[in-house]
Amino acid sequence: MLDFRTLTKGGMLLICLTRLGPSPVTAAAPAPSAPAARAESFTLKNGLKVIVRPKTGAPVATMQVWYRVGSWNERVGIRGIAHLFEHMMFRGSEKYGPEEHSRLIQKIGGYDNAFTAEDMTVYHQTLPAPHLELAFRLEADRMQTLVLDSQVLNTEREVVKEEFRQSLNNPFSKAYLEFRKRLFPGHPYAWTPLGDMEDLDKITVQDCLDFYRRHYAPDNAVLIVAGDVSVADVRRLAETHFGPLRPAGRGANPAPIEMSKLQKPADRRIALKLDLELPVVTLAYHIPPAAHEDIPALEVLTAILSGGESSRLYRKLVRESKLAVHAMGYTLLQRDPGLYGVGAAFLPNRRTSQVESKLRDEIARVIRDGVTERELQKAVNQTLADMVFEAYSADHLAHGYGETELLEGDFRRWETVLDRYRALKPKDVQAAAARYLSPDREIVLIAEPEKTNWLYYVLGFFKSIADWFVEAWDRLAGWFKS
User: Fold this and answer.
1) Answer CATH for 4-241 from 3.60.70.12, 3.90.1750.20, 3.40.50.300, 3.30.830.10
2) What's the mean pLDDT in 251-262?
3) Which of 33, 85, 315, 340 has the most CB atoms within 10 Å of its CB?
4) Active site residue 86
């Protein structure tokens, strides 16, 4: 499957079309603390990096293989091959038949899956800890002895193409694909792991063999194990099953590109007509790669601006001005520069320019006046609480280490991220907003309905009348009280 972030949240340009953004923040409270345990790592002679995070409690272990390959590593002509491989990896290897990997994991009470994103492809399984060696045998076997022939390719090609067609039937996914093309010209982020339908038809068995030999190798992977395990046992299993595998000798991926090297979109205002119920407008901005020091401040700003009904955008656009029915924000983090956005959905009796102007006013207010200490603490505490909660699941632990290793270059940054959030000051958030959300960096994205249901105009009309009466009643009540 595709990484959820790719089409909804975090590869999630159109998160504003599908959800309300971060969870509602709560009143300021003492910041939670993460468990004190730390992960250990070692590297095999063939280049495989292994990260182990022992976690006592339930007799369960999670084993994940993170390959440093995704749609970022594709080129025009083979767009979609990374996602195609995610499917083909379940079609059998030298020792195990088609779908046998999953059947064996499920037979002992475990579960497995995989996902593809722009910067990674991940295969993961959670199973009873005493059966951990099974996962090692299965993953090592398909790392270098995958069955790749025309029958496998043609079968999985049709499955991936059907997923592509389904995404095009979804107006939100379709809009996301179109906006990506325009926001990242000349960069592999211009397409998603879904790829390109014409390219999928052109991919050959030889293309697959070349891709597999280059990217599916121990020196291009990170093995992560978390749960009821010991470092010594994991080292023994890794040496036994992965140690004999040949490295590809491909070298590391290039370093993340700098913001200044990112090609600018041809248009700063992009509008699409889609099969939507309501119009949506988003202000988008390119932001630095995930490892940049300003990312925590930007993520906290997302919570302040769009974290539930107490957030600034909801108060100003939905509750006070009555311009929108939803207000939202997102931070899309990637290995190369990502995206920041704020947006709103509104009834058709409101003008796009009104909503756009109000969104812009709120960004300008942060740049001009900053945020309060109370707002900052509420946002930080909610972020920390979410992270600490995830730390109690072996699956989430492994995912946190893997994502941080591949996006930021060092898994230990995941263990210190709480400190970076706690150290934030209001001035840091204001400075990050000024640095990345200035008017000259703004890109306006507009998604309008192809056909507007006249009932929404009626709804908007009556809602305006109801809002007027509520405001009049409040003023009258205040007059009597005074």
Assistant:
1) 3.30.830.10
2) 85
3) 340
4) yes
